[in-house]
């Protein structure tokens, strides 16, 4: 059974959202590393990897059902926070 175009678009939008979240966590990991907070940077890197895994899960799901993956532009995330607390706000 072919996946509907509406569902295909929704999944492609979700793939984009997952990659945006991954970018955001990666930016946070880099900021934490710049702050010499290695443990926090490591934790954000784990979150980054989870978001990429989520995106790839949607990619695989769509491909297995004959849908077309259309990668969209990823919005640039915020890249600076004043302190570690701000990373969680």
**How many strands appear in the DSSP assignment?**
0
Count of alpha and pi helical runs: 2
CATH topology: Ferritin
Average of per-residue pLDDT values: 97
Number of domains: 1
Give me the Rg, rounded.
16 Å
CATH architecture: Up-down Bundle
From N to C, what is the helix and strand string?
HH
User: Helix/strand-derived class?
Assistant: mainly alpha
User: What's the story with the biggest beta sheet?
Assistant: none
- Uncertain parts: none
CATH superfamily: Ferritin, core subunit, four-helix bundle
Percentage of β-strand residues: under 5%
Tell me the overall shape: elongated
End-to-end separation in angstroms reads 43 Å
- Helix residue percentage: 55-70%
CATH class: Mainly Alpha
How would you describe this structure to a colleague?
With about 90 residues, this protein is mostly helical. Helices cover about 65% and strands about 0% of the residues. The protein contains 2 helices and no strands.
Kindly summarize this structure in a few lines.
This protein is mostly helical.
């Amino acid at each position: 059974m072919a996946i509907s175009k509406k569902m295909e678009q929704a999944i492609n939008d979700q793939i984009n959202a997952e990659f945006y979240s991954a970018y955001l966590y990666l930016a946070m990991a880099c900021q934490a590393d710049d702050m010499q907070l290695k443990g926090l940077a490591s934790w954000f890197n784990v979150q980054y990897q989870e978001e990429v895994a989520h995106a790839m899960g949607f990619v695989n799901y769509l491909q297995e059902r004959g849908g077309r993956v259309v990668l969209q532009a990823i919005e640039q995330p915020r890249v600076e926070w004043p302190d570690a607390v701000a990373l969680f706000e």
